[in-house]
Structure formats: C-alpha cells, structure tokens
Predict the 3D structure of the following.
Amino acid sequence: MQVAIPLYPRFTALDAVGPYTVMAFAPAFTVTFVAATPGPILDDQGTLSLTATATYTDLPTPDIVIVPGGPGTLDALTDRPLLDWLTEADHHTTWTTSVCSGSFILAAAGLLKNRKATTHWAFLDQLPTFGTTPVPARVVTDGKYVTAAGVSSGIDMALTLLAQATDVLTAESVQLAMEYDPDPPFNAGSPKTAAPAVRERALTLFA
C-alpha cells in the first residue's frame, strides 16, 4: 500500500508526522513525502524540515493521499502543481485524506464539493465557501474521503484509516506500539471544553 504525503512551505509538522508514524508502523505500507521538487521543506515554525524524496511525477497513482494543513495552506490553495497532482491522484486512490486545514486544499482541488468534512475548529465555518458541509467531529468519513480536525487528530484519522485499509487488530497493534494513550493534563483540547479565555488566547496564536 503506497501512501503519499505532499509537503509545501509552512505545513504543520505534526499534521504530517502523526499520520506518517501510524502508517510507517503498519506492515506492507510504504510512506513517501512528495513535493513539486525533492528536497527539504520547512514547517510553519521555519526551524524543522521534512524531506520530500519524490516528485509528484514520481508518484502519480498512490493508494492513499494524506494532505497536512498549516499556515501555508493559504498559498497552497493556488499551488497549481499540487492541486493538479491531487486531482489526478484522486482518480487512483483508495482513500484521499487530510489533516487540519489540509481539507481546504482538497476542497480547492474540487474533491470535497457536496461532501461532509472537518478541519481545525477555528476555520470550520469557512468550509461551505468550497461547497463542503462542515462537521464538528475529530474524524469525518464521506465515501473514500477522510478528514481530520486540528493537528493532533491526524493520529486518530490515520488509525481510523488503517483499520479500514487492513483490520482493527492491525490498527490496535499500531496504536499500542506507539503507546498512543492520550491523557492530557488539561481539559482544554476542544472548544467545547476550553474556557472562553483559553479559546481567545488560542486564536491569537495563529497571528
């Protein structure tokens, strides 16, 4: 099973690395970071880079696509090589997926029109701009399209996807191998549970 994760400037690292780790643990899965040109691509902090080892042309027919989000999403919405690759790759994928604002990139490629999807809570109400129905859930599946909410939810999405691509036993085994057993120190990981002051402070971090 060939998994492709496209990278673009100012992506959010965990959006890519979380699902990468899940899929890389799975037997018979090969994960490749792709971009218009191979080489290191800096994340949204400008201090961490991941290396694209293949171009879009090198990997035209992946089984799974996972699009990360991040502040660079705005520029990626008009990145023609990326959008064209997504549109063509989607003809061949078994699953086309995204994490966080990566759903906007799928939508810009015309792949989420008249479909249900999710994204980071702060931007969820903007999905209808693309003809997409927003769903405030951590993972949303609509046909072969699987979208995840903000950042850390990419791990949940990847485990959900892995169970569909293989079986629950494999997904649970990978979860245990990663020791993914969330027990956050604060009950502030969702806009439903965070205090108003926390939500306001969180929104300033995007500036």
Observations:
- The mean pLDDT is 97.
